[in-house]
Amino acid sequence: MQTSAWLDTLAFEAARLLDRPLTALAVDDPGRSRSLAWRVGPLYANYARQRIDGPAWQALLQIADGARWPQALQALVDGEPVNFTEQRAALHTALRGEIGNGPAARAAQQQALAARERIEALADALIASEVTDIVNVGIGGSDLGPRLAVDALRDHGAGRFRIHFLSNVDGHAAQHLLATLEPRRSAAVLVSKSFGTQETLLNGTLLRDWLGDPRHLYAVSANVERAAAFGVPAAQVLPMWDWVGGRYSLWSAVGFAIRLAIGADGFDRLHSGAAMIDRHALQTPLADNLVVRQALTSIWNRNALGYDSHAILPYDERLRLLPAYLQQLTMESLGKSVRRDGLPVGCGTVPVLWGGAGTDCQHSFFQALHQGTDTLPADLIGVVRPDHAHPDNHHALLANLLAQSEALANGSASDDPHRHYPGNRPHTLMLLDALTPESLGALLALHEHSVYLQSVLWQIDAFDQWGVELGKTIAGRLLPAVGDDSAALPSDPVTAELLGEIRRRR
Ligand code: F6P
Predict the structure, then answer these.
(1) Per DSSP, what are the bridge partners of residue 434?
(2) Angle 198-211/171-178 helices, nearest 10 degrees?
(3) Does residue 1 surpass a pLDDT of 80?
(4) What is the pTM assigned to this prediction?
(5) What's the sign of the alpha-carbon dihedral 309, 314, 315, 321?
(6) CA 275 to CA 77: how far, in whole Å?
């Protein structure tokens, strides 16, 4: 499907709706608060406060059909090389269920099962040991997913271990963490698909030397040789594969820390929540498909209404790391401007994704959401049943969630321009019945598939990340000059000036 054709369709629909307030849409179609809501298991999403009406939805669904989204989802789970710049599959779905028919998918499922047995054996050995503290050393996809899940699911934790995360190459992070730990009671899990990431290798070296005992060293990597050469006992290296992208990998042994935090049953439940969304995505017609609605809403806000930012606003303290996790998932996957055929995409791709936990952020950036010059679309995410016994707090949290949604949509007129709320700020409202391993798995899988479907329409690769390589190469080139004041200054005049300033001041 030609990009210009679907962009024209969206422009036509948007022209009708750009000046149409959300309040008017609600009057036009009083049933939309119910008809534009979908539930899959514990996950409910309401799109009634998006500036999209019936004809626009129909147009969007036709665009999804024309872009062959159902076939694209099948290609993903079957193990076709959807990562086309690297000729690789992206089989994260094979890590959580028997979905997909191709030989690649079946082989991946077998590998995932075998790896799971090894995860369990190592987990059992750790549980039986005197280790109390686990340090997950990794960055990006080797950090954000496990960090989010461990933090979010602490109420479902087995409580056997304290789990820590060390990602930043900034030595303060390691120094502060190690000051709280004891080598004899600690184990480090070095998580790196490539086992070549500078931050992880430096922090891993620090941990290895501090622990002083290789028996306390574990690794998860697709490069088993490098992990072994680093000094991790071969029996303690869990596998990764090139058919899983880092930011899609928490379901694999990359989630070892999650398994240690919430137990085998909890880890299974996380997988089953994601697998439920996989089946829903594959088996549900476009119009009733939550993954499709989520992806189309993003396309609409970006390509029809032209918004270039999207806020993630979880109203649950335990989901405070969700914005950071989705930032990598979305911006590393969709931050591209060149199509499969090498031509420019021809429309805006990823918006700036950001956010924070409500109610805290109501007292920081919500002013801009309500009265700023730019419209900032958002997802507000609430949890119906809490895991604490403080109903007054929870009622206040939910009241704030509902209130903010209403205020953003409806605004409030005032003769005083400073006290006027324009409203008309589109957003989606999501509710989880409770924050459980299943519902978290479902929420993350929903976003994974939504990201992928957007990439299909834009004809970009959701599974590569060439954009991050240049900075790494330059850092490697600069490192000798940063470490040695007698080394020649770099050729770039600004870098040379800055490094000169650093040398004069240290
Ligand atoms: O620099 C980006 C990146 O490659 C991410 O895509 C990845 O999640 C992260 O680095 C960590 O990579 P690795 O797991 O190979 O250490």
Answers:
(1) 385
(2) 30
(3) no
(4) 0.98
(5) negative
(6) 11
Strand-pairing partners, residue 378, are 311, 427
Q: What are the C-alpha distances in Å from 450 to residues 345, 445, 462?
A: 18, 8, 11
Query: pLDDT digits over 237-257, tens only?
Result: 999 999 999 999 999 999 999
Greatest CA separation for the chain = 73
Q: Which position among 13, 199, 332, 448 bears the catalytic label?
A: 332
For ligand 1, the distance from its centroid to the CA atom of residue 140, given in whole angstroms, is 5
In whole angstroms, give the CA distance from residue 260 to residue 125: 11
Residue that has been written with the tokens 């959580």 in this structure: 96
What atom of ligand 1 comes closest to residue 199's alpha carbon?
16
Examine the residue annotation and report whether 193 is marked as an active-site residue of this protein.
no
The CA-atom distances, in angstroms, between 446 and each of 12, 16, 225, 490 are: 29, 30, 35, 46
Beta bridge partners of 263: none
Pairing mode, if any, of strands 162-166 and 186-191? unpaired
Question: Does the annotation count 363 as an active-site position?
Answer: yes
Say how far apart CA 13 and CA 43 lie, in whole Å.
29
Edge-to-edge strand ranges of the sheet holding 37-40: 37-40, 43-46, 427-434, 378-385, 309-315, 352-355
Instruction: Decide if 469 is catalytic.
Output: no
Structure tokens at 157: 């934790």
pLDDT over 90, % of the chain: 98
Half-sphere exposure for 479 (CA within 13 Å, toward CB): 8
**Could you tell me the pLDDT band of residue 355, with boundaries at 50, 70 and 90?**
very high
The Cα 243–Cα 103 span in angstroms is 13
Q: Ligand 1 pocket, 141 CB below 6 A?
A: yes
Res 322 pLDDT > 90: yes
Strand partners, 163: 134
From CA 488, how far away is CA 506, in angstroms rounded? Answer: 17
Q: Please give the span between the terminal C-alpha atoms of the chain, in angstroms, as a whole number.
A: 58
Is 391 buried (19+), middle (13-18) or exposed (0-12) by CB count in 10 A?
A: exposed
Going by pLDDT thresholds of 50, 70 and 90, the confidence category of residue 416 is very high
Quick check: 342 pLDDT over 80?
yes
Distance from residue 188's CA to the centre of ligand 1 (Å): 18
Half-sphere exposure of 272 (CA within 13 A, CB side): 11
- Containing 428, the helix (H) or strand (E) segment is strand 427-434
Tell me how far apart the alpha carbons of residues 481 and 406 are, in angstroms, rounded to a whole number.
Answer: 56
- Cα 425 versus chain centre, distance: 24
Any ligand 1 atom below 6 A from CB of 139: yes
Q: How far is CA 258 from CA 94, 163, 193, 319, in A?
A: 18, 9, 17, 15
Q: How far is the CA of 303 from the centre of ligand 1 (A)?
A: 29
| Extended strands (E) in 124-225 | 133-137, 162-166, 186-191, 217-221
